[in-house]
Amino acid sequence: MPNEVEKKKRSSAWKRFIYEFFERSAYEQWHDGVNPYVVLDLVGEEREEAENILIESVQKGEMWPTEGLAALKSQKALPILKKKLTNAPPPTNIRIALAIEEIEGSGEYVSVIIDELLTGYSPYNRLEAAMKLRKFPTQEVINALFKGVLDPDYLVRNHSSESLLEIHGFEPEISEHREIFKLICADKENSGGQNLPELYEKAAEMLKKLFKNKKGLKKGS
What we know:
By secondary structure, the chain is mainly α. It has 12 helices and no strands. The longest helix has 18 residues, at 196-213. The N and C termini lie far apart (46 Å).
């Protein structure tokens, strides 16, 4: 926990900020994520201090503070984030790239997330990339997510499909599209001896047809 907590009298908003980013267990943060928007309740000197603490935490290699800096739209953090990105391991690289995009919105750093989806060694990092890419509805991202539907890992296929649904204006619940979902779930035990890559290709084609015809469970329906 940062030294700044010392003996100063602090607001309840400050205490919520410290708890969210620095006092919750690593498991809680991994399982539930963090609520980065607690930083927006801070004002004046406390907000400035929080920004500095988050930047310092990023420099130490921690990955959750990137979300707080993104919520603050921290221009001060941008050069540090960009420098850190050059050698950040996954999934920290995903979160840094996302924070940079949420602060400046150039589109330049989306490629970092795409690369992790398409070439990342760990399926957990690939699925995180698939989830984050729904924020960027470009053709390049759509093409990458369709490749994610072909991934050997079920969760990557699942989240790639759900991001595609979100981008195309559908509720991001692939299980609601049962015929496609069955293909997404196919593995050696339930494939009936069929070629798995071909089943995933079929799922991708069915998704493309769904989007073309604008059928299915659209948001708000």
